[in-house]
TrEMBL record, chain B:
Residues in ABC transmembrane type-1 domain copies: 205-412
Main location: membrane
Protein name: Phosphate transport system permease protein PstA
Entry's localization field: Cell inner membrane; Cell membrane
BP-aspect Gene Ontology terms: phosphate ion transmembrane transport
Pfam families: BPD_transp_1 (PF00528), DUF3333 (PF11812)
Keywords: Cell membrane, Membrane, Transmembrane, Transmembrane helix, Transport
Transmembrane segments: 36-57, 209-230, 250-270, 276-300, 321-343, 396-415
Length: 255, 423
């Protein structure tokens, strides 16, 4: 399956909430070692689309997905696809930091534990340490791993959530406006972290912040009213958009 | 477009004019009145609680105290003929009863206090003599003084106001130092009796314990699992709406109806033992379950969706999400609902009357299938007695019930605080 040209490729994806169509006919590819930014005005469906990539929409009873989304050439909506494994392979970081009300160690160790990635406590501790280091949080929390994860600051909580996501060794990380609840300094740290993580994972990030998209991503996709208007390399989208709507949006005419 | 005069630049608002002052005074007044009303409500309920506790304590404490009479018995010269070897082992009670220890006790009382002497003693006084003999068989060969419970009319005269004749007897006995009051440990260790000086609460207490055990064992898991299923798994359609309405209605059904249900189902259909703790427990479980389901559903609903997202997002299966995250976070609320439901079940009388738990039972239940009664039913039965000696026993039993209730709530609050998560 390594022959698949793209890490994730979505073809003619439609998403419905009841009778209302939220996404219409979106086809887009996401590559390894690339950060792709999904931008667009509020309510344009970019978060909805992001949530189709690891089937988080399954938890919403009225949501219905049509079309095909392949991960390494396998259709993730095929009946034989195990959604639990899928979500381990495609990790997610949410808009609001949502650590479990457990210790910092337990927050990171939870994923490896339920997926059986560590056979003893030493291995588990190694995974926790490695993940926290990779998330740039280790130096700040190494002396208080048994403190509650909810006692950290907002930016630290979000990095803890990133550490939690990478602890299960995913192939793709989905980030749904990961900095929208954070102050500029914490945001800068997360962006730095995205840069460092880029070499290991395919990252898809939804953001409202155009500068952030320009700073962290190599590719950008612009969504409007549930449709994919334009996608391409970030520099092209920002300097030389092909579509009038894209240009209007990134120059701040609406959105 | 013509501009109306009122639109345009308005005069600046004068926040100090009389109208604003009046509005302000009114607002402060409303705040003050509300605060006083709230304080009044709290004080009123606290007052009722104090009145309840004081009246129960003043009437009930004497129920834990017993008047005893000194009874000199000369075992060596009594009519009692029994082989001391028989005083050991399980046959001792039978042997002593057969040897007419009761008659010997009455005879000793008549010898000590005149022809009416045996009427001064409680009907069960000889059992106390029996216990003494069993504890110390050497008594059989000598003269000894045994303290035995006084008859209820003497007991009442000694504690409060009795009939003039009884008061005179009490005065005489007191003068002879033949009367003492002591803590009635018998009240906590024995069961129901027709003689108020011999009654105890242990049978009812144990019945309550067994019944609550069954109730908790059935109602808690079934209630919590139902709530989890309805909240986390069940599709939202007309059927689940119907179930929800039914559960809410079930929580409001009068308890006696559950008694009839228990009678019809557990006794008439399944032919379980009448008056048994298991039937009582099952019946109360039916009554408690809706309360636990409703409280648990609310507690589960209150778990933030972001936690579910986080767990699903990392690849937890639905069962893992429920048992690793949702249930622990909902546990304090679930336990609160369980406390309320169990406290209601503990104080329930009506449904248990329907399934025969109001029988006169003189031995504590040995197991779930033995005839049993429970504290509130015992209180109800004693409050119905004509004999005045039962008045203080009723209050004493209420005190025991309140202590039981407080202990149960204490355990539950302790557990709830242990599960409490700080965000």
């Amino acid at each position: 399956m390594t022959a698949a040209p793209h890490k994730i490729s979505a073809r003619h994806v439609n998403v419905f909430y009841g009778d209302k169509q939220a996404i219409s006919d979106v086809s887009i590819d996401f590559d390894r070692d690339v950060v792709t930014a999904l931008i667009g005005p509020s309510g344009c469906g970019k978060s909805t689309f992001l949530r189709t990539l690891n089937r988080m929409n399954d938890t919403i009873p009225t949501a219905r997905v049509e079309g095909e989304i392949d991960l390494d050439g396998e259709d993730i909506y095929a009946p034989e696809m195990d959604v639990v494994q899928l979500r381990a392979r495609v990790g997610m970081v949410f808009q609001k930091p949502n650590p479990f009300p457990k210790s910092i160690f337990e927050n990171v160790a939870y994923g490896p534990r339920i997926h059986g990635l560590a056979s003893n406590h030493t291995q588990l501790s190694d995974i926790v340490e490695r993940s926290l280091k990779r998330a740039g949080l280790w130096d700040e929390v190494k002396d208080r791993l048994s403190d509650s994860g909810t006692a950290l600051s907002g930016g630290q909580q979000q990095r803890l959530c990133i550490a939690r996501a990478i602890a299960v060794d995913p192939e793709v990380i989905l980030m749904d406006e990961p900095c929208s609840a954070l102050d500029p300094i914490a945001t800068a740290k997360i962006e730095e972290l995205i840069h460092e993580l880029k070499g290991r994972y395919a990252i898809v990030i939804v953001t409202h912040n155009m500068q952030q998209a320009a700073r962290v991503s190599q590719r950008t996709a612009f969504f409007h009213l549930g449709a994919l208007v334009e996608s391409g390399s970030t520099s092209d989208i920002f300097t030389n958009p092909r579509q009038e709507r894209t240009k209007d949006y990134i120059t701040g005419r609406y959105g | 477009m013509t501009e109306r005069a009122s639109i345009g630049t308005p005069a600046p608002t004068d926040w100090r004019d009389a109208a604003h002052q009046r509005r302000m005074a009114k607002r402060y007044g409303a705040e003050r009145r509300f605060r006083w009303l709230g304080l009044g409500a709290v004080l009123m309920s606290a007052g009722f609680l104090v009145v309840l506790l004081v009246s129960m304590l003043s009437a009930g404490v004497s129920g834990f105290v017993q008047t005893q009479i000194a009874l000199p018995i000369d075992f060596a010269h009594s009519r009692l003929t029994i082989d001391p070897a028989k005083l050991r082992g399980p046959g001792a009670d039978l042997a002593l009863a057969a040897a007419d220890l009761g008659g010997a006790t009455d005879a000793a009382a008549i010898a000590a206090y005149g022809p009416e002497g045996d009427a001064l003693l409680s009907d069960g006084a000889w059992t106390r003599v029996r216990d003494q003999l069993k504890a110390d068989p050497s008594l059989l060969h000598r003269r000894a003084t045994v303290w035995v419970p006084a008859a209820d009319r003497i007991d009442i005269a000694a504690k409060r106001e009795g009939a003039p004749a009884d008061e005179a007897i009490v005065a005489k006995l007191n003068a002879a130092h033949a009367l003492k009051t002591s803590f009635n440990s018998f009240f906590l260790t024995s069961s129901d009796s027709t003689d108020p000086t011999m009654v105890g609460i242990w049978g009812a207490l144990k019945g309550s314990l067994l019944t609550m055990f069954v109730t908790l064992l059935i109602a808690f898991p079934v209630g919590v699992l139902s709530a989890l299923y309805l909240e986390e798994y069940a599709p939202h359609n007309r059927w689940t709406d119907l179930i929800e309405v039914s559960i809410n209605n079930l929580a409001a059904v009068p308890s006696i109806i559950f008694g009839l249900l228990g009678l019809a189902v557990f006794l008439n259909t399944f032919h379980l033992q009448r008056s048994a703790a298991i039937v009582g427990g099952l019946t109360l479980a039916l009554m408690t379950m809706p309360v636990i389901v409703i409280a648990s559903r609310n507690a589960i609903k209150a778990v933030p969706p972001s936690i579910r997202d986080a767990a699903f997002g990392i690849g937890a299966s639905p069962v893992q999400v429920v048992f690793h995250h949702v249930l622990p976070l909902a546990m304090p609320g679930i336990l609160t609902g369980t406390i309320i439901g169990m406290a209601r079940a503990l104080g329930e009388t009506a449904p248990l009357l329907m399934i025969g738990m109001r029988a006169f039972i003189t031995a504590p239940p040995g197991g779930l299938r033995d005839p049993a009664t429970v504290l509130p039913v015992q209180i109800f039965l004693w409050s119905d007695q004509v004999n005045r000696g039962f008045v203080e026993k009723t209050s004493a039993a209420i005190l025991v019930l309140l202590v039981f209730l407080l202990a149960m709530n204490g355990v539950a609050i302790y557990l709830r605080n242990r599960f409490e998560t700080r965000w």
